[in-house]
Amino acid sequence: MRDDLPAEPSPRNTIIAFALAALAIIGGAVLLLAARPEPVRITINPPVPTTTPTPTATPGPITVYVTGAVFNPALLVSLPPGSRVLDAIEAAGGMTDTADPEGVNLAGFLRDGDQVHVPELGQTVTLPTPGGGGVVNINEATLEDLMTLPGIGPALAQRILDYRAANGPFANLEALDAVSGVGPALLEGLKDRVVFE
Questions:
Q1: CA angle 118-119-124, nearest 5°?
Q2: Are 171 and 139 within 8 A, CB to CB?
Q3: How many degrees, rounded to 5, is the angle at CA 65 between CA 61 and CA 132?
Q4: 186 pairs with which residues across the strands?
């Protein structure tokens, strides 16, 4: 047997070496966990709510009744808001050769329910056009007379006649408010256009 060979480690030394290595690994792991930084918390804040502007009402189309010396008389015409009398006449085919263009205010603005009447040459104008300013006696008016008033179309004119027939003449402008479909805005538009005598 040679003396220069290293001695074999004893089993006890091997176990101690493994135990020390295991302790070193466990100690390192504990130190690593202890030295780990605190986790970062991410908080997401929603944006501050902003006020949404309230949508404004877009005015709808208006409907007017065109009669008289036009190519398509007795026609209900649908037009955009802000239209003028001339627009209604053109929508009804334009004036005939017998029309009296000076008998109608072509520049007058239209409102829903207006009637536009184009007179014949030499005809006395009995139906005012918008902007023409005719006055109507509510207690003697016919359906056609009532339809010359701003905001009064065929259905509302008939309700006014029916109410008048059932309840007697209207005493004043406020009495018209009892008719279904008549309200403060319509009464305001009628105050200079109707009489009750």
A1: 145
A2: no
A3: 100
A4: none
- How far apart are the C-alpha atoms of 21 and 25, rounded to whole Å? 6
Taking residues 88-94, report their average pLDDT.
94
Going from the N-terminus, what domains does the chain have, and what CATH number goes with each? 60-133 (3.10.20), 135-197 (1.10.150.320)
Per-residue model confidence (pLDDT) at position 131: 46
Q: What is the 3-state secondary structure of 80-99?
A: CCCCEHHHHHHHCCCECCCE
Q: Which two tokens stand for residue 92?
A: 């009804």
Cα 159 from Cα 179, distance rounded (Å):
7
Alpha-helical segments (H) within 36-84: none
Residue recorded with tokens 């390192």: 28
Give the integer Cα–Cα distance in Å for 11 and 156: 115
- pLDDT class for 43, splitting at 50, 70, 90? confident
